[in-house]
What does this fold into?
Amino acid sequence: MRTRSLVVRRSAAVVAGIALAAGGVGIAGALQASAAPNQTTTVSTTVAAKPAITIKSDKATAKAWAKVSFTGKTTAIAKGSVVQVQRLQAGKWVNFPATTKVTGKSTYSVWVQSGRVGVNKFRVVTAKATSAAVSVNITK
It folds into this structure.
């Protein structure tokens, strides 16, 4: 009988120890749960803007050799970066003899003159970005 009571006492001690341990986790969990709503986690991420450039023409149609101005805005392109005008010729973009630089306000302005009669497609490029094309109809 003595062994049986020893086993019962040890079993009771183990159960009591488990209960205390579980109770301790419960208290710690409750303390953590009550503290969680007051805590705020701020994650700061900086997403670098993708370099971009736009183009706008002041004329849709111009006489041969008349000045046509292009203006635009840039994003994430450094002040002083070179802006090169290109014209589509025989399916390839070719540098046109007109360049300018990006201003401190992230803009640019440049003009061209073309004697090539018909629809001329122009775009601007920098080392980091290329604009969409703009069409100018050159007439005689």
In short: Residues 2-35 form the longest helix (34 residues).
